[in-house]
Design goal:
five-stranded mixed β-sheet, 10 helices, Nucleotidyltransferase, domain 5
Length: about 300
């Protein structure tokens, strides 16, 4: 049995996991991120990896932001902070462990996990969207991450939409993310601390909350409609806190998307909620190692 280490670096915490070639998580540990000291974080990652109980063939790293995966470099990672910009993370961790290390964007890896063993395992083209504190995306074609000409494909954060409130252009993430939903609710005077609380107020008939939740679903449906028009995926998989904390969210968004489609296309629209969720980054990172190892890439 082969084993790999998977590392998921987030703003709040870092996870280090041991997975086998069947993608079973044998062991997982976590510790608080130190975004002000990348080297301290890398030292702790290396320490945890070297103490794993099985011999591993490599390390896969899941990280937010815009990356140069070929060079193993972090280019733009606002979730972690500017001290991480330009960090050659694969080289740094390989020196600490003596192991081959591979890097990829977290949403790309989550999508890859969904395509391999998740909701999309029986399909060819999978679009993954993580709707959480921020919005992330990954397009998977034939079990491979589609990266585009320069490695920046599916970076949706720069997309601008017309704000329904002021008619001004705004980022799509400022309307559909967990952060956006909570922020909008607080701006209207609602006392909430989670997206679930906003949804509960909406379901109880609070007009402000109803409007906020409706706008989030409509904007997300519009985004998915655009994605389908360009890439025609077999399935769109939603992950992250918003679809997981809000009952019926995925189904409502799917219905909104189908309403926009031509009659011949509507029956082909499939939108599903992830069944891997928080484990998807680790599973994708594990596959990153095994796929490189299979082709003898170091």
């Amino acid at each position: 049995m082969k084993y790999a280490a998977a590392v998921d670096i987030g703003r709040a915490k870092v996870q280090v996991a041991l997975l086998d070639e069947m993608y079973n998580i044998v062991d997982v540990q976590s510790f608080d991120s130190d975004i002000d000291d990348p080297n301290k974080t890398l030292d702790e990652i290396a320490n945890r990896v070297l103490k794993l109980t099985k011999t591993i063939c490599g390390i896969g790293i899941s990280c937010p932001g815009i990356l140069d995966a070929m060079k193993g470099t972090l280019l733009y990672t606002p979730n972690l902070g500017d001290k991480w910009y330009g960090l050659h993370i694969t080289e740094a961790l390989s020196k600490r462990t003596g192991l081959p290390v591979y890097l990829e964007n977290n949403a790309n890896l989550a999508g890859l996990a969904e395509a391999i063993i998740g909701e999309g395992k029986n399909y060819k083209v999978i679009q993954f969207l993580r709707i959480s504190a921020n919005v992330g995306a990954g397009l998977i074609v034939n079990k491979k991450i589609f990266k585009g000409a320069h490695g920046f494909a599916n970076e949706f954060s720069p997309i601008r939409i017309v704000s329904s409130s002021g008619g001004e252009f705004d980022k799509i993430g400022n309307h559909i993310s967990e952060t956006a939903i909570i922020s909008k609710a607080k701006e209207t005077g609602l006392k909430v601390n989670s997206v679930k609380e906003v949804d509960e107020l909406a379901k109880s008939g609070n007009e402000k909350a109803v409007t906020i939740m409706k706008e989030a679903k409509v904007h997300l449906a519009n985004l998915i409609n655009t994605i389908i028009a360009f890439t025609d995926p077999d399935m769109v998989v939603l992950g992250g806190s918003v679809p997981f904390e809000i009952e019926g969210f995925t189904e409502e968004v799917e219905a909104l998307v189908k309403e926009q489609m031509l009659e011949v296309v509507s029956p082909l629209v499939r939108i599903s909620r992830s069944r891997l969720n928080e484990d998807s980054n680790l599973i994708g990172a594990c596959n990153l190692v095994f796929s490189k190892e299979t082709y003898g890439l170091r």
